UniProtKB/TrEMBL annotation:
This is Prepilin-type N-terminal cleavage/methylation domain-containing protein/prepilin-type processing-associated H-X9-DG protein. The lineage of its organism: Bacteria, Bacillati, Armatimonadota, Armatimonadia, Armatimonadales. It comes from Armatimonas rosea. It holds the Pfam family N_methyl. Keywords: Membrane, Methylation, Transmembrane, Transmembrane helix. It is found in: Membrane. It is a single-pass membrane protein. InterPro entries: Bac_GSPG_pilin (IPR000983), N_methyl_site (IPR012902), Pilin-like (IPR045584). It comes from the Bacteria. GO terms for biological process: protein secretion by the type II secretion system. Its main location: membrane. GO terms for cellular component: membrane; type II protein secretion system complex.
Length: 288
């Protein structure tokens, strides 16, 4: 007897293809979320390691935080001897280009970078008003403007005060509410890194963690946008070395935020900024 060979029918092939397509549609977003989560974890690991370097620096320099200077100087330059690899200053989720040399006249070391650092320093809550980890401005003959570091003893709540963290700021690298979205092209919280808008921060006492943030439009802020911790209790203390020192605009910015004690500034934003209308608006929180 001759055996008849039977293959798949067209209908059976179409059913198999449909099943594969359905599985792909289900699994591809899961894979994408897994990759995003992996990048977020890598970023948090960077923050923890730099936070350890920050703590070591503070102990070696009479309990004084790193300074800030003009002319291509960034806060992380002083920490490089403690963490060695410059890859740590780059967040896996921030790849905007930046061909720039750091260091200059203030140090014999020159660090060439081709993309932006992922992390900014705590200059205080609003623009150039201060209140963070740098003290009064001075002028040095070789280095130009210099902002001295802050004594650890002068920081009221080291375990609740940011040292540095995720930022979109450029060219200055800060985490200030009105600076940290300077390079962000979106207009919603949904576009933030990392998954679900969790930014990574290191605190003055050396610990690090992911914190949910939210943003909106702010007149006078760089790029017209702002970002703030979603937890009001965290936001209240996060940017302030002295919790009760009055932070004055002194003509440094055009925001509508009045002169207030540092730990009242973020509360004022929450109390006075409504949800943004669908058309956009100003001085308001994004709803999504």
């Amino acid at each position: 007897m001759q055996r008849i060979k039977r293959g798949f029918t067209l209908i059976e092939l179409l059913v198999v293809i449909a099943i594969i397509a359905i599985l792909a549609a289900i699994l591809f977003p899961v894979f994408a979320q897994a990759r995003a989560k992996a990048r977020s974890i890598a970023c948090l690991s960077n923050v923890r390691q730099i936070g350890t370097a920050f703590a070591m620096y503070v102990q070696d320099y009479d309990e004084t935080t790193p300074s800030g200077r003009s002319g291509g100087w960034e806060w992380w330059v002083e920490l490089v001897p403690y963490f060695k690899s410059l890859d740590l200053i780059h967040c896996p989720d921030r790849n905007d280009p930046n061909v720039r040399n750091y260091g200059g006249a203030c140090t014999s070391a020159i660090y060439s970078r081709t993309k932006q650092s992922g992390y900014g320093y705590n200059w205080g809550p609003i623009s150039y008003r201060g209140g963070g980890l740098m003290g009064p401005r001075t002028v040095e003959a070789n280095c130009g403007q210099q902002y001295l570091g802050m004594s650890l003893a002068a920081i009221d709540l080291p375990a609740e005060t940011f040292a540095f963290g995720d930022t979109y700021d450029t060219p200055r690298q800060t985490i200030a509410v009105s600076f940290a979205l300077d390079g962000y092209g979106g207009t919603s919280n949904a576009g933030f890194r990392h998954t679900l808008g969790m930014f990574n921060y290191a605190f003055v006492d050396g610990h690090a963690k992911a914190i949910k943030v939210r943003g909106g439009f702010m007149g006078g802020a760089f790029n017209g946008k702002f970002i703030i911790p979603a937890n009001r209790d965290i936001a209240r203390t996060a940017f302030c070395s002295s919790q009760t020192a009055v932070i004055s605009a002194n003509g440094f910015d055009g925001t509508n935020i009045p002169n207030l004690p540092c730990n009242q500034i973020t509360d004022w934003i929450y109390a006075n900024y409504p949800a943004c209308p669908a058309s956009g608006g100003s001085n308001c929180f994004w709803s999504n």
